Amino acid sequence: MAATQRYSNFSIALHWLIAVLIIIAFILGNIMVDMRISPTKLQYFSYHKWLGVTVLGFVAARLISRLLSKAPPYPESMGKVQTQLANGTHILLYVLMFAVPLSGYFYTLAAGYPVVYLGLFELPVLIAPNPEIKGTLKELHEILNKVMFVLVLLHVAAALKHHFYDKDGLLNRMRPRF
Ligand code: HEM
Prior knowledge:
Layout (H helix, E strand, L loop, with lengths): L8 H25 L5 H30 L10 H32 L5 E2 L3 E2 L8 H36 L12
Helix pairs in contact: 1-2, 2-3, 3-4
The structure holds protoporphyrin IX containing FE.
């Protein structure tokens, strides 16, 4: 397997932390919307929102670190088209990692609920309750989630292809080293 340079430990840690938190928020989101109204459902809504806000903060931190330090180069065997596809997918993933939590945040505010992070701090109320746009924001949150789901599957499939088929060491760039 070809030797490749790696991302910084900070970037690698954030990548896997964000991945785990998104998966949990996604599963919890799907579970909670199908539940009948109960104190547990409301508790799950709170956990979901806290997870989503945490993702937002970590994604912002990772984007800053990604812009400040150059990503390691792709293996030469990838060629121009594959490199452009990979870059395009990564940009789209960043857009969605911001858009998904933000759409949930604005939906919650439009529905008239404040977001109280970890039950401790009320986050900024950036828009007034608005029943007219509430439904659209809810739908947007669902649609963006579906698009992100497909893109994450593509991202994982590409990583596995590089690791098992191309054997070009690409996955090592993001492998934690303990
Ligand atoms: C990584 C971040 C997030 C992910 C992956 C995510 C995922 C999801 C999913 C899969 C659903 C179920 C959609 C459906 O099929 O009906 C959902 C619903 C919901 N999410 Fe998020 N979400 C995120 C962030 C947020 C944030 C930051 C908030 C608010 C602060 C939020 C508020 C909500 C609310 C209120 C619902 C329920 C919608 C309803 O009333 O049916 N989400 N989310």
